[in-house]
Amino acid sequence: MSFFGLDCVKKKERELERKLRANDREYNLSFKYATNAIKTSKYNPFTFLPLNLFEQFQRIANAYFMFLLVLQVIPQISSLSWFTTVVPLVLVLTVTAAKDATDDINRHRSDNQVNNRKVQVLIDRKLRSEKWMDVQVGDIIKLENNQFVTADLLLLSSSEPLNLVYIETAELDGETNLKVRQALTVTGDLGEDIEKLADFDGEVRCEPPNNRLDRFRGTLTYAGQKYSLDNEKILLRGCTLRNTEWCFGLVLFGGPETKLMQNCGKSTFKRTSIDRLMNVLVLCIFGFLAFMCTILAIGNCFWELNEGSQFMVFLPRQDGNDAAFSAFLTFWSYVIILNTVVPISLYVSVEIIRLGNSFYIDWDRRMYYSRNDTPAEARTTTLNEELGQIKYVFSDKTGTLTQNIMTFNKCSINGKSYGDVYDYTGQRLEITQHTERVDFSFNPLADPRFIFHDHALVEAVKLENPEVHAFFRLLALCHTVMAEEKKEGELFYQAQSPDEGALVTAARNFGFVFRSRTPDSVSIVEMGQQRSYELLAILDFNNVRKRMSVIVRSPEGKLSLFCKGADTIIYERLHLSCSKLMDVTTEHLNEFAGEGLRTLVLAYKDLDEEYFNQWKQRHHEASTLLDDRESKLDELYEEIEKDLLLLGASAIEDKLQDGVPQTIEQLSKADIKIWVLTGDKQETAENIGYSCNLLREEMNGVFIISGNSPEDVRQELRNAQTSMKPGEDSVFFPESTLGKGVKVMADEAVNGEYGLVINGHSLAYALESSMELEFLRTACMCKSVICCRVTPLQKAQVVELVKKYKRVVTLAIGDGANDVSMIKAAHIGVGISGQEGMQAVLSSDYSFAQFRFLQRLLLVHGRWSYLRMCKFLRYFFYKNFTFTFVHFWFAFFCGFSAQTVYDEWFITLYNLVYTALPVLGMSLFDQDVNDVWSFQHPQLYVPGQLNLYFSKKAFFKCALHSCYSSLVLFFIPYAAMHDTVRGDGKDVADYQSFALLTQTCLLFAVTIQLVLEMSYWTAVNTFFVLGSLAMYFAVTFTMYSDGMFLTLPSAFPFIGTARNSLNQPNIWLTIVLTSILCVLPVVTYRFLFIQLCPTINDKVMFKVRQAKATLPPPPRRTRIRRTSSRRSGYAFSHAQGYGDLVTSGHYLQRPALYRSSGLTHTGRTTTGFSPMGRSAGYSPTGRPQNPKVPDVEGTSLQMYRTIKEPSL
């Protein structure tokens, strides 16, 4: 999407309908439609400075420091030089402006690159090469193979048969498989005849610009006829033309009005809980600052009234300046002096720490997936510490917990189950890598990567069992797969879902090879014979129908309807004669469910010719309606899909990703609750839950919520609560008691572990406002929750519900477009770059390739980031409060005159130079234990969930500690220097010497405190700490030298102070004494705390010290195996719309170069045969999944397993 820009431009007036005329720029310009130029940049050379500064000063911190700067230039108020604020403020503004400028320059380059691309435009009856930005609505343009689509176009004609074009939509939805579009016949006849195209004056009326990628509605009026336009005739900006020599298109939407640009809406800005806490604390600090300044202003007023008159001779007052006015000025003076309680460097340091911790995630080799060359990526730098506080993880199932690589595993045909292997005693054997595989050498078109172990099925195929043949014939005909055959026998299937690819590949291996298709026919090879079926209709899949059907005419003229879909849907439409077969098939489905397989039920019926012709006519009329087209078609589909005859069921395995059970186990030990939100059926999701340790046999109970009415759901939820807390009455929070404020629901302790499974229609009731609290209370009492058959909207609603009523941090993880809403709703969104495109990744905050990397992201990077940020904030506030409070105590000894206790240069450099690098070193490199120990003890993660490391309580402890340290740092040097002389008898108790001593004591005290905070020392940390102290002394001796004073006397008044003071032993003794007194309470408190009530961190760090010489052994895990009779679930990962494509010719490929006349039974051919289709491991990427299978002998018919049911 980076090629096409990101920002959207809003129209001034809302457009209700778009009208345009081809080849008529004058007419189209009257509507003032947007041109095709895009602008994603924010600034130009003239607006950069004012706009950028305006944006930066919208941040409260920057505006606050600008306000201080204004105060500092008022002579009556300021006791500090202006540069103490200007230097850090300018530094921060400059760094931010440089970053913004760099980003905007890159946006300008991207805009220019896109806007200056060339495309051929039909102007004045000639094709001219024009820049993209000069293309206008109503222009006709020519695209060639591998070119990006310039704007949203109406396809007019193409070089392919039937005016087809093939496009890749990776920039729009992340999918790399080719899609097909087809022009209207009336415009397709224009071809590439420039004269005809120049004379084309069709008028288009269509919907206004919008962001719906899957829908388009409009009409084309041409030569007195009106034609309906839909999404299948539109080429969207962002697509790439593939396998098509050329095509012509009419520009409908340009630039910011294209659907791509309309879809670039900004995501919600996410802030961490620490950010929100910081905002509250900063407001508290501002209040405390005002309180301190008020006290000091009142003190000044009293001092002026009582003592000030005695200084009138020495310091005469200006006319009209009474004590009250002096107090007013003093208030603002102390606002300036004490402003370091909120230092500007805090915000800069926080961003640097977050950036550094983001790089650690990007650089982590243990989160790199070499198979796909996919590293982990921190797509945001503002949420790292939030990763250390996750309490709830919301996960998709397919492609997230599972691989989304489908393998044809088992099937049930006419009451017989195939797929298991038995020994000679009839005992079922476990299938391993060494189990004998079926030999498909009789079929030269078989996929060598397809693996199947039950020889009985291939024997049934060879014996021409009619039901088995009908089963695989249905799989070969009822689909929307595209076949590509570049060489003879080298078949490559382009399927819109891995399920379809696995089923068609299975049929291919068992002798029913889908070879090619045209808009009105499907060619398959049945057991060596080429047969062409006339394709009369496709009754397409959608999420409501949950099934698809095809109507075909066999070469013998027989009309048949083939249907596949969800078991519950198909069973409702079966003929009564199938009842016994349905019972047996249901038993097999239950067996398949124990392994969490995805199932489809297959059925068919023969059609009467006369009835079908009548139905076909009504179908044509309904399909041409402009209004209510979908509902009319659904009625017709329902009518014909009745009295079906059951053939059997297929079972596809969606394998778990590596390490999923172990990851879930680790996260569970870290007290992270995992909720799976999936579109799969309840039984499938439930069994996957058991296989990945989400649900366990040793749980006290697993509650199934499947009520069909609000009352049933409410009762089931209450029953579950009663089971978990039998001694207590259920307490509910009706909506009326909540009022306007949102009530936070506290966690409830339960005896034992429980699981909750709720299906989609029950969840819809549970999410209603009257019941949502009951559902949330029940779910939060459970260890794990599985929500089945949920829509993308429901996924987001569940996340929002937990966010609303639980004071916790949530994380959502998914891999598909249906997970985007959930990922955006959660505090943190994680995208898995898998088989379902890149939409989830593009919307996420973090991304990686495997679910198992989540435990490292949270338990290592997240915990370290949170720990480092909390240590940083605690220490930062400590050192700045201590620094500032010394000013407060000094005020009582300087007549509240707003005189500073330190040298002005020390005030300027304290946060920028002297203490900046040590605290950054700690915040970037510190770790309490290494990653191995973090995995060994997941409980280390719990303090982050409870906000134990940094909270309001921790902040006030830090403030009290600072108050104590400031008292020591002021009064010990004050007492030590009172009436003191040097060794040579000269006076040392002057203001400048006291300032130097106090600031030196302060620097040593905060440095030692940092050393105590640090758990992990590196060479960099050591260099930063020692280097900062060395820098302090080097700068101090330089600035207090004679040369600097002579250069600029007013800026460097502390001439000779350093060398006169720091050569005295009593000065160094004072430094040592203050440092010891500052850290003594801290050391004492920590010693007693560790001895009396150690935390989990203390215990683990003690173990680390004990086992320092050797690494801990890796944890031993037992693989939990489970068999179950729970019912499998239908999970047909299909998309709507492909049926119409097929029947209208959209899937027609060029005729294959080679076609074999049949199949032989003499073994596999070897000359140049390199099949590319995927088997029981079908993937849209076409990567090989399984090694080539060695040839094995076929088995005898004695291996058949039959069900003795006389009625079948």
TrEMBL record:
It comes from the Eukaryota. It is an enzyme of class 7 (translocase). ATP binds at residues 396-398, 500, 541, 564, 598, 678-680, 789, 795, 818-819. Its main location: membrane. Its EC number is 7.6.2.1. It is a multi-pass membrane protein. The active site is at residue 396. It is found in: Endomembrane system; Membrane. Mg(2+) binds at residues 396, 398, 815, 819. GO terms for molecular function: ATP binding; ATP hydrolysis activity; flippase activity; magnesium ion binding; phospholipid transporter activity. InterPro entries: ATPase_P-typ_cyto_dom_N (IPR023299), ATPase_P-typ_P_site (IPR018303), ATPase_P-typ_TM_dom_sf (IPR023298), ATPase_P-typ_transduc_dom_A_sf (IPR008250), HAD-like_sf (IPR036412), HAD_sf (IPR023214), P-type_ATPase_IV (IPR006539), P-type_ATPase_N (IPR032631). The keyword Metal-binding applies. PROSITE patterns: ATPASE_E1_E2 (PS00154). Keywords: ATP-binding, Magnesium, Membrane, Metal-binding, Nucleotide-binding, Translocase, Transmembrane, Transmembrane helix, Transport. Residues 1158-1195 are annotated as: Disordered. GO terms for biological process: Golgi organization; phospholipid translocation. SUPFAM superfamilies: Calcium ATPase, transduction domain A (SSF81653), Calcium ATPase, transmembrane domain M (SSF81665), HAD-like (SSF56784), Metal cation-transporting ATPase, ATP-binding domain N (SSF81660). Residues 1158-1169 have a biased composition (Polar residues). Its cofactor is Mg(2+). Residues 841-1094 form the P-type ATPase C-terminal domain. Belongs to the cation transport ATPase (P-type) (TC 3.A.3) family. Type IV subfamily. This is Phospholipid-transporting ATPase. It comes from Eleginops maclovinus.
